[in-house]
Design a protein that fits this description.
The complex is a heterodimer of chains A (111) and B (116). Chain A has 111 residues and is mainly beta. Chain A has no helices and eleven strands. In chain A, strands 2, 4, 5, 9, 10 and 11 form a six-stranded mixed beta sheet that branches. Chain A has a five-stranded antiparallel beta sheet with strand order 1-3-8-7-6, with no helix packed on it. Chain B has 116 residues and is mainly beta. In chain B, β7 and β8 form a beta hairpin. Classes of the chains: A mainly beta (111), B mainly beta (116).
Amino acid sequence: GQQLNQSPQSMFIQEGEDVSMNCTSSSIFNTWLWYKQDPGEGPVLLIALYKAGELTSNGRLTAQFGITRKDSFLNISASIPSDVGIYFCAGFSNSGYALNFGKGTSLLVTP
Amino acid sequence: KAGVTQTPRYLIKTRGQQVTLSCSPISGHRSVSWYQQTPGQGLQFLFEYFSETQRNKGNFPGRFSGRQFSNSRSEMNVSTLELGDSALYLCASSLAQGSGKKETQYFGPGTRLLVL
C-alpha cells in the first residue's frame, strides 16, 4: 500500500486551543477518512469524505477533502482533555483496494 | 447496531506456535479486512475478504492466512509465530468494496498478540 504523509507527528497544546493536521498523498484518492485511536483500542471513525472539495463537520471536528484529491485536513476547535489520542488519516486511491494510512498525529491536551 | 467484535482481546504465545483470531463484522457488512499495527510500521494491510473469497492481499508472508465464513465472520491464522509478529491485529468491516460510502471501514477493538 501507499504510505500517506501525515503532519505534524505530535502536538502538545493547552485546553481551548484549536488544532490542525493534514495528510498528503502522491496519488489521487477517491475517499479520505479520519480516525482517532485511544491506547489499546481500535481506530474510531471520526469523519468520512467522498468528494473533492467536500467540507464535513462532526461536532468540534471539521475535515476537508482537498480539491487536488491528494490531500485532506482535519481541524479540532476548542480542544478538551478527552481529545487526547492518535489521529490517523486514511484513504482509498483509485487504483487500490487497501486502506492506506498515515503514521498518525499524537495529540496531547493539557488542562 | 453492534460494532465490529474481535476475540480474544489479548493473547500470549511462544515462538513456533500458531494462533487464530476471530472477527465478527457489523451486521450487514460483507467485506472484512485485517491489519497489523506495530509502533515501527504503523497500520499495515494484511488481506481483505468478500463473500468468502480473498480479494486483496498485502505484503505479508504465507504464514499469515485467513478465511471468511458464509455469515461474513472472518478468522485469521498465523503459523510458526515469530517475535516480530507481536502486534495489535485489527479487523475492519465495510458494506462492500466499491466507491464512496460502501467502502468506509469500521474497526474492531483489536487483538493484542504478544509472542515470547
